[in-house]
Amino acid sequence: MVHEGLKKVLNGVVAAAQAAGRAPEGVTLIAVSKTFDGPEIVPVIEAGQRVFGENRVQEAKAKWPALKMAWPDVELHLIGPLQSNKAAEAVQLFDAIHTVDRPKIAAEIAKEMRRQAKPCKLFVQVNTGREPQKAGIDPDQADAFLAACKEAHGLEISGLMCIPPADEDPTPHFTLLAEIARRNGLSQLSMGMSGDYAKAIACGATHVRVGSAIFGTRG
Ligand SMILES: *Cc1c(COP(=O)(O)O)cnc(C)c1O
């Protein structure tokens, strides 16, 4: 079955990777299904998409257990901010968490992964634009925080994530994230959304988080 929005974005990902001289398989498309319900999500799963992103634990808990029952090979990524009192639910529900950004969250996730014997792929979110209202570790504190994740909390971090300021050219933010990842020996970069995923892929994104370009405008 074909889903037009998904097809368009998959083609766009392949084109951007090829333009950057990269293998398209090196870029994972995360279909961001926040605010959309089962009837809108199912056609995207039936078209073959298996990696999805949600930004709220409660919303994901309401709609994904049933979908995961029907399609057990679906992978679910948390891309929104995490409160420490939701860490247990997040570790249970999600296969990856992109928003590790402070010691308390790192400690809670580590505790829950041990308690539930449930591994999660982890990304540290970096606030590349140093926006006060935005989650993420300050770029200047990223190296120390990454070391603490490993040494104090025993966490294996796979990569970094950022959300550039809405009104700026995203490329310097993608470049900064890639540089912090490189000097910390991290290979994965979660960056790029509907409007800028091609630029993110040019800067080395391994995971692009695309919602509206697949599902349509959010209500
Ligand atoms: C909503 C969201 C996206 C997807 O945004 P679109 O512009 O709809 O592609 C990506 N990343 C995060 C963190 C989001 O909250």
From TrEMBL:
Transmembrane helix recorded as keyword:
no
Q: Which cofactor does it need?
A: pyridoxal 5'-phosphate
- Carries keyword Hydrolase? no
Q: GO terms for molecular function, please?
A: pyridoxal phosphate binding
InterPro entries for this protein: Ala_racemase_N, PLP-binding_barrel, PyrdxlP_homeostasis
Q: SUPFAM superfamilies recorded for this chain?
A: PLP-binding barrel
Q: Could you tell me which residues carry N6-(pyridoxal phosphate)lysine?
A: 34
Extract the PANTHER family matched here: PROLINE SYNTHETASE CO-TRANSCRIBED BACTERIAL HOMOLOG PROTEIN (PTHR10146), PYRIDOXAL PHOSPHATE HOMEOSTASIS PROTEIN (PTHR10146:SF14)
Output this protein's name. Pyridoxal phosphate homeostasis protein
Q: Which organism is it from?
A: Aestuariivirga litoralis
